[in-house]
Amino acid sequence: MARIKWTVFAESPIGHRPGVPSRLVGLADASKRILLGRKLRSSQLGETLLPKRIALPVFASDALSSVAYAPDEVFIMLSIAGATSYAFSPWIGIAVAMVMAAVIASYRQTVHAYPSGGGDYEVASVNLGPTAGTTVASALLVDYVLTVAVSISSGSQYAAAAIPFLSGHEVLFASALVVLLMAINLRGIRESGSYFAVPTYAFMVAIFVMAVYGGYRFVTGTLPEVESAHLEVVPRPGFEEPLTQFAMIFLLARAFSSGCAALTGVEAISNGVPAFRRPKSTNAASTLLMLGGIAITMMLSVILLAREMGLRYVDPHELDRLRTPSGDALPGDYDQHTVIAQIARALFADFPPGFYLVVTMTGIILVLAANTAFNGFPVLGSILAKDGFAPRSFGSRGDRLAYSNGIVFLAVMAIVLIVAFDAETTRLIQLYIVGVFVSFNLSQLGMIRHWTRHLLTEKDPAVRRKMQRSRVINTIGLAFTAVVLVIVLVTKFTEGAWITILAMLGFFFLMRAIRRHYDRVSDELEIEEGDKVLPTRVHAIVLVSKLHKPTLRALAYAKASRPNVLEAVCVSTETGETDKLLAQWDKRNIDVPLKVLHSPYRELVRPIVDYAVEIRRANPRGVVAVYIPEYVVGHWWEQLLHNQTALRLKGRLLFTPGVMVTSVPFQLASSAVALERRKRGQSRVQAGDLRRGRVQERDDDRQVHR
Predict the structure, then answer these.
(1) Residue 288 domain flag
(2) Cα torsion 324, 327, 331, 334: sign
(3) What domain count does the chain have?
(4) Is the pLDDT confidence value at 228 over 50?
(5) What is the residue range of 617's domain?
(6) Does residue 582 carry a pLDDT above 60?
(7) Which of 257, 559, 589, 706 is disulfide-compatible with 488, CB 3.0–4.6 A?
C-alpha cells in the first residue's frame, strides 16, 4: 500500500513561513493588512459568528431601510389620481404588512428546515430540481445587485438634501459609498457588523421616537401639518375624471406593488444562517421575528403619520403637478423633501436636533442597507461555486475569511447600475422586487413539497402535526407572494421590470453555461487506464538565441532530466548572427547538436511551434519538452525589456498537445539587489512582533528570530 507523506507549513498572520530567511512582505501585502487587518486562520472561523444583537443590523438593515422609500413609492403611485386617493394609503400599508407577516412566518420554517445557508436556492434545488434552483439563484443575484444600487442611490439623495455641495454629484458620492462598503466587508462579517450595529439601532430609536411622539400629538389634537400640506396635486393627464372601478383597482395594485419593496431583504437571513451562533436555526428564526415586528410597525407608522399630516408627494420628475392653493406653479428651484424628512421637520419644528437625528440616521441606514446584500451575495456565490454554477474563485475565502471575490464582483455591478441610472432611486425602484418575489414563490412551493415528502414517511403524530402546520404556513405564504408577483409583473413590466427579467435570463443562461463547462472539464479529466502509461520517447529542445550563461544552464538542466533526444534549436533571422553563433558553438565544443530553423519572414515563435508539432506528429506517443532560458530581474521596468519572446512562445506552446514547457530562470544582478533591499527593509522589528513571538527581548538587545 502506498504511503502518503504530509508536510504542513504553519503560515503566520502576515503571510510568511517560519524558517524562511526573510519576511518578503511587499508593498501590496502591507497595504492589504492596513486596509483589511491581519489574516485569520481557517480555524478562527468560529470567532466570526454573530450573536443576535449583531446579526439583526447585519441581515435586517435592508428590510428596515425600506421604511425610508416604500411609503414614498406608495404616495407617488396614489398621486397619479390626485390627493384624494391618499385615503387608500393606510389600507395599502396594511396589505403590505400582511404579506410581510406571511413571508416572515414562511421563512421561519425555511431556516429550521434548511440551516446550511442555501436559503431559497437550496430549497428550490432540492425540491424542484436544478432548473428551479438556477432560476432562484439568478433572481437573487439580480436582486442583491439592485439592493445595493437602490439603497446607496437613495442614501446619496438624502445626503445631497442635507449637504448642498453634494447636489449634482450623487453618482460620484454613491460610487464612493459602494467602494467604502466593499472595503469594510472585506474585513470580515463580524467586524463589519460591529461597525453597522450602532447606526442601525439609532435609526430604529429615531423612527420609533418620531412615531410615538407623532401618535401622542395626534391623540392630543396638536399634530402639525407637513410642509407640502397646503399644496394641490394635479392628476396625470387622463386621470382628471373620476376613475372607473377597473382603473381604480389597477391604480391601487400599482401602489401596492411599489409598497411591496418593503419585503426586500427578508430572505437574506435564510441565506445567512451559517453566520449565526449556535443554535443557528433558532437564533435566525428569532432574528426574523424581530425584523418582521420592527419593520411592519415602522412602515405603518410612517404611512399613517404622512396621511394625517396632509402630505402631498409626487414623482420627483413630475413636480409640475404640485401647485399652490391658487393654482400657480411652484418655483423652478422647489425641493421636494422625502416623506420621513417632511414628517420629522414638522414634528420637531421646535427641536431641530430631533429632525437632524431622524434624517441623518435615515440616510445612514439606507447606505448600510446595502450591507445585507454584501453579506448575502457572497454566501450565495460560494454555494453556487460549490455546485458548479459560478466561477470557483467565488468559493474562496479571503484573508479575513470573507468571500472576497463575491464582494468585489457585487460592488462593481452595483456601481455600473448606479452610473447607468444616474443614482435616481425612482428609476431604479421599477427594476426592484421582481427578482425577490420570483425567489419567494419558488421557495414557498419548494417548502410545500418538502413537508409533503416528509409527511409520507413520518409516523410520530406530534411531529406530523408540526409539519402540517408548517405546510399550511408555507401555503399561505405562496398564495400571498404569487398574487404579489402577478401584480408586480402586470403593473411594472413596462416601467422597467422587463430589464430585470432580461438580467435574470442573462444570469440563468450564464450559470448553466458555467456548469456545462465544469461538467465537460470534469469528464475530460477523468482518469483512464492509458493515463498511467509512460511516454515512449522524450524529445528535449533547448531554445538558444545567444551562447551565454543562461543557455548553458538550460542545457545542463535538460541533460539532468535524461531525455531520449536532446538538441539545441536556434531560429535564424539574420545570416551573420547565425554564423557567429555556430562558430562559437564549435569553438566551445558543446556536445549537444545545434539545429538552425530558417525564418525568411523573421518570425521567432512560429518556426519553433511548427518544429515541435512535427516532432510530436512523428511520434504521437512521445513528449516534446521545450526548455526556455528566462531572466529574473529586480525592477518592474526591466521586465518590459526582457522575456517578451518567451512569454509569446509559452502562450502558443500551451495549446500544442504533447508539448511540455519548462522555464529555466537565470537571476541577474538586479534581482539580488532587490532581494537585499527587501531583507534590509523587513529585518526591522515592527509593531506586534514581540507579542506574536517573532522577537525575543533580552536584557541588552533584541534579536529577530529567523
Answers:
(1) yes
(2) positive
(3) 2
(4) yes
(5) 537-667
(6) yes
(7) 257
Task: State phi, psi for 663 to the nearest 5 degrees.
Answer: -90, 130
User: How many other CB atoms are there within 10 angstroms of residue 558's CB atom?
Assistant: 22
SS in 3 state form for 276-311?
A: ECCCHHHHHHHHHHHHHHHHHHHHHHHHHHHHHCCC
**176 in the same domain as 231:** yes
Residue written as cell 442583491? 144
For residue 399, being part of any structural domain is answered with yes
* Domain edge (last residue) among 521, 549, 576: 521
Q: Which residues of 196-226 are buried (b: 16+ CB within 10 A; e: fewer)?
A: bbebbeebbebbeebbebbeebeeeeebbeb
Q: Give the model's pLDDT for residue 569.
A: 92
DSSP string, 149-183: HHHHHHHHHHHHHHSGGGTT-HHHHHHHHHHHHHH
What pLDDT, on the 0 to 100 scale, is given for residue 193?
56
Inform me whether the pLDDT recorded for 311 exceeds 50.
yes
pTM of the full predicted structure? Answer: 0.69
The pLDDT assigned to 643 comes to 65
Rounded mean pLDDT of 342-353?
92
pLDDT for residue 49 is more than 80: no
- The answer to whether residue 9 is domain-embedded is no
Do 569 and 541 form a contact (C-beta atoms < 8 A)?
Answer: yes
* Helix, strand, or coil (residue 366): helix
Query: Tell me, what CATH number does 408's domain have?
Result: 1.20.1740.10
Instruction: Average the pLDDT over 248-276 and give the result.
Output: 80
